[in-house]
Design brief:
The chain has 2 domains: about 5-60, Winged helix-like DNA-binding domain superfamily/Winged helix DNA-binding domain (Arc Repressor Mutant, subunit A), CATH 1.10.10.10; about 70-250, Rossmann fold (3-Layer(aba) Sandwich), CATH 3.40.50.1360. The relative contact order is 0.14. The strands form 4 sheets. A 7-stranded parallel β-sheet has the order 6-5-4-9-12-14-15, sandwiched between helices. A 3-stranded antiparallel β-sheet has the order 1-3-2. Strands 10-11-13 form a 3-stranded antiparallel β-sheet. The protein is globular, with a radius of gyration of 18 Å. The model has no long low-confidence stretch (mean pLDDT about 90). The chain is of the alpha/beta class. The termini are far apart. The protein has helices at about 5-15, 20-30, 35-45, 70, 75-90, 105-110, 125-135, 155-160, 190-200; strands spanning about 20, 50, 55-60, 95-100, 120, 140, 145, 155, 165-170, 175-180, 180-185, 200-205, 220, 230-235, 245-250.
């Protein structure tokens, strides 16, 4: 089992039980206590848990899972459309962009393919299909393990393939954005892809409708001062200011 798969299952156990024991985890995964200790240290560094003697405690008492991908496609559709259109104003023709998988980034991609000469690198199967059918852009779908619920690839292969490229922009849509906690995701594998894309891009554009502002989920993607552009709508919380980046408000 890959380390990210093991860590995802640790987070699942924490979400269900509120705590985990290192000895129990070592027996469950048939690995050493030292391996579990490293897993817990990594997850604590990403804000996913609090290590205690003999195990770890959940730090996400008020964090709930995202709705299913199919359900998310049906909500905030107008807001996502306008956020996507606004974000496209920041993209120059012939740019290379990383785009992570999500319903807001899918809405963004629908507008992006109208810009000439765009090169898209994504783990989203839906965005790759959309780009390939447009004939107006160059598209690359990152390899990896397909996810059962979200139509996208994840895992060690996806992360290693991201490392092969440099992009002008990384387009990321987090589960939540908090000025102190930064951008967060509910799923570890999604946060890993977003974080790696940001590291391999010159600039980060974060797409986040106002309902997600001032909130936090369980796995850290980045700090607020690592975001160059935050594109949101004019709802509650949209008066947020970034430490060094710019906030763009999408009109209706």
């Amino acid at each position: 089992m890959w380390s990210h798969e093991r860590q995802a299952k640790i987070l699942e156990s924490l979400g269900r039980d509120g705590k985990v024991q290192a000895r129990t985890l070592a027996n469950m995964f048939d690995v050493s206590r030292e391996t579990i200790r490293r897993d817990l240290m990594e997850l604590e560094g990403r804000g996913g848990l609090l290590r205690v003697h003999g195990g770890a405690l959940s730090t996400s008492d008020n964090v709930h899972p995202e709705p299913a991908f199919a359900d998310r496609l049906e909500i905030y559709t107008d807001v996502k459309y306008h956020i996507g259109r606004k974000a496209c104003e920041l993209i120059s023709p012939s740019s290379t962009v990383f785009i992570d998988a999500g319903t807001t980034t899918l809405a963004f991609a629908k507008s992006l393919i109208g810009i000439s000469g765009i090169r898209i690198i994504t783990n989203s199967i839906e965005i790759a299909r959309l780009g390939a059918s447009s004939g107006n852009c160059e598209i690359l779908l990152l390899g990896g393990k397909p996810h059962q619920e979200v139509p996208a690839t994840y895992g060690e292969l996806t992360l290693s393939e991201i490392d092969r490229f440099l992009a002008d922009f990384a387009i990321v849509a987090p589960v939540a954005f908090h000025i102190t906690r930064g951008a967060t995701s509910y799923e570890l594998h999604e946060a890993e892809v977003a974080r790696k894309m940001m590291r391999r891009a010159e600039s980060c554009i974060m797409l986040c409708h106002s309902e997600k502002l001032g909130k936090e989920s369980r796995v850290a993607i980045c700090r607020a001062d690592e975001v160059d552009h935050l594109v949101t709508d004019a709802g509650e919380g949209s008066d947020m200011r970034l430490p060094r980046g710019t906030v763009h408000i999408a009109g209706g």
